[in-house]
Amino acid sequence: MNANTDRVAPEGARDRVAPEGARDRVAPEGARDRVAPEGARDRVALVTGAARGIGAACAAKLATLGHPVVLADVIPEVEGTAAALPNARAIRLDVADPAAVAALPQALDDWWERLGIVVNNAGISPKVDGRARPIREMPLEEWSRVLAVNLTGAFLVSQACIPPLRARRWGRVVMMTSQAARGKSVIAAAHYAAAKTGLMGFARSLASELGPDGITVNSVAPGRIDTPMAQGAAAGVNDAFLAQIPLRRIGTPEEVAEVVAFLASDAAGYLSGATIDVGGGSFMP
Ligand SMILES: NC(=O)c1ccc[n+]([C@@H]2O[C@H](COP(=O)([O-])OP(=O)(O)OC[C@H]3O[C@@H](n4cnc5c(N)ncnc54)[C@H](O)[C@@H]3O)[C@@H](O)[C@H]2O)c1
Q: Where does residue 10 rank: exposed (0-12), middle (13-18), buried (19+ CB within 10 A)?
């Protein structure tokens, strides 16, 4: 009997599963190395920007599925968000701070070696009076901070998390990009569009590099989603956007989290380097 099957089969189910060696006969040469023997509880998920909004929904969904979840954020609310979830921990982390990110192994402590899922969700989208700041008025400091959080932060966190994923030869990395990276945006400013477009390119490079280690890397591109970030848009901006959305409503954080959970699952094992649009049809390639 396969030891992996022993761990996941419920009492009495062993008689009903394929006899020993069945997996050997169908698995291509070397494929067994890429199959994770553990269940969800052995795949720790790290979600950045998880105190609220889409990140909090992703953390909740992954926790519901049985993953131990680390919620990382710069704001103190992350403690309360994590406290409401089963088997979850909160850490204070600025993803744009290289020293703080380098300390992730210590921050995750005994969970570090079980890390399997990384959701690079932390992001900022500064606005002026609820509208995109014109490029001609954009201070370099604001440009640099948006690139640092939305793009460099994902690079730093992904790079730091490669060792445990490679060691187990299984991993899932998800980038939270945006429809602002898929076409012209009337709401997001240039720095945000540049960072999110760069994030998609970074995801493709990472997918190419880590694929041989059994690690998939994909991007999720939400449209308008009802979170504090979207609520920061000026009155009427979200309403005006509705006419562009075939489903005629803005989305919920939970609807994005469902897609992230799928990408983090074994069901998405042959999906890598892709961008999944979750925008009610507002962008169709
Ligand atoms: N809401 C939308 O309509 C929408 C659309 C497309 C993409 N997105 C993207 O989805 C992600 C989540 O957005 P949201 O709408 O939930 O926004 P939000 O502002 O509600 O949540 C973002 C979270 O990221 C955290 N964060 C900010 N800077 C951080 C840093 N340096 N380090 C760690 N955490 C940090 C914030 O504290 C916050 O908890 C972002 O990357 C955003 O760009 C959102």
A: exposed
